[in-house]
Amino acid sequence: MNLKRRQFLFLSSVSAISTGLGWMLTRQNIQSADFAESDTAIAANPPKKGMLLRFVSVADTGTGAKGQYAVAGAMNLYHKQNPYNLVVLAGDNIYNNGEIEKIAQVFERPYGLLLKRGVKFQACLGNHDIRTANGEPQVQYPGFNMKGRYYTFSRGNVQFFALDTNANADWKNQLVWLEKELSLSKSPWKVVFGHHPIYSSGAYGSNLEFIKTFTPLFQKYGVQVYINGHEHHYERTRSINGTTYLTCGAGAGNRPVGKNEWTEYSTSNLSFAAYEVYADRIELSGIGINNRVFDQGIIQLKSA
C-alpha cells in the first residue's frame, strides 16, 4: 500500500504553514473558556471493578510556557486522585524545531512530578520534531521510550501502535509493518497513535489520503482508537466503522475548532484526555486546566 505523491506535497505544505501560524497560535490564549454547568470536577475515585488500565494522552506540548504547565498541573492532579503510569505523547514534543537541548525546559521540568512518580511517556514524532536531525535525537532520548520512528508496545490486553505520520516518513515499509503487526496482534484492544489527524474539524481539516490509507486497515483489524495531535484543540468523533478518532493537541496552546457530522464533542480549551480500559469498553474523559471533566464518552470493544 503506497501513499500518493500529492499527500507528500500536502503534508509538506501543512508543515510549512505550521512554522509560522502554528507556533504563533501555540503561544496565544492559555485561558480556559467557559464550561457547561454540568461539567464535573476531577474526583478521587476507586478503580471500578474490572478496570484493566488507565492512561492519558496529550500532544503539541513542548513549549515550556504557561499553557504547557497549566495542562501538566491538571495531569498531576488527575494522577494524584486517579493514578496512571502511561502517557501517550502524540508529537510536537519540542518546539520550535525539535532541538533536543531544550528537553529539560519543555519536558523534564513540566512533567517532573509525573516522571518522579514513575509515569512512562511513549512518544511519536511531530512535524516540528523532525526539523533537527530528522528527529533522530528524540528517537534516541530515553524519556520518550521510542523503539524507532514507528513501533508497538503492549500494556496488558491493550496493544499500542506508534506511527511516524510526517511527510518524509518511510511510508512504504511503515505501512507494510503496520498491517503485519495488526494482523499478528492477539490483543482485544488496539490503539494507534500518530501526530497528524485523520478526521479533524480544525484549521487543517480531515486528511483524505489518510482516510483512504488507514481507515480500511483499522476496520479490517479492529482498531478501536486513533489518537493524534497537530490540531491544537480537543475533538472526539463518534465511532466511524468501529474506530473513535481523538485529537488531543491542546497540550500547551489552542486554536478554534468547529464540528462535523461525525463530531461527538469538540472544544479549543487547553486539555488532555484520560482513558479507563475495561474488558468490554473504554471510558474516555476530556479534562481541562480548571480540573473539570468537560467530555465523557464510551468506546465499545466492538461497535458498528
From TrEMBL:
Gene3D superfamilies: 3.60.21.10. Keywords: Hydrolase, Signal. Residues 54-234 form the Calcineurin-like phosphoesterase domain. GO terms for molecular function: hydrolase activity. It comes from Mojavia pulchra JT2-VF2. The keyword Hydrolase applies. This is Metallophosphoesterase. InterPro entries: Calcineurin-like_PHP, Metallo-depent_PP-like, Metallophosphoesterase_PAP.
